[in-house]
Amino acid sequence: MAREVIEVGVVVERRKLKSPWAEFSWQPVAILPEAPAAAPWTKLEETAEAVRFYAGSSWLEFFSSETTGYRDNLDSGTPKLWVVLREVAEEPGVSLLTVTADPAEGESLTEPGTDIVEQLAMPPTIVERLSRFVATHHVERAFVKRQRDRADPEALAHRDPTIASGDD
Questions:
Q1: What is the pTM for the complete model shown?
Q2: Which of these, 123, 142, 137, lies nearest to 62 by C-alpha position?
Q3: pLDDT band at 167 (very low <50, low <70, confident <90, very high)
Q4: DSSP 8-state assignment for residue 155
């Protein structure tokens, strides 16, 4: 299986909330096509309502077995990357979990409902690399519907335990 890896940077925003249940909300806001030399959680910009941080880098992986999903993502007209943040007890309160270009994986990461999952526009340089990867490694696979095994009606029949099976 072919695999390609790109290190990307992620920018997140922390917004103040007027809520008795939470002090802040976190949201990924940008993907950097290359990870900068800055340390994770470097403050980039601050306003009265929000602070933007460079959250750190993540490995964006492409697998040849997932090219159908990548192709569908690219063909959508607005290719996306899914960024996942997880709330943690340590400062600043969230950690960068992963970044993916696979729509099926992105959707599956929303299932537990405990992580922050956002779709962000895929930067043009990543679109180009992913397009080349799909062009090189995609193999069209025909859909094959599975056929059910036919049940043996005799296997379900009632047997008289007093009759020998003849397997002696």
A1: 0.80
A2: 137
A3: low
A4: G
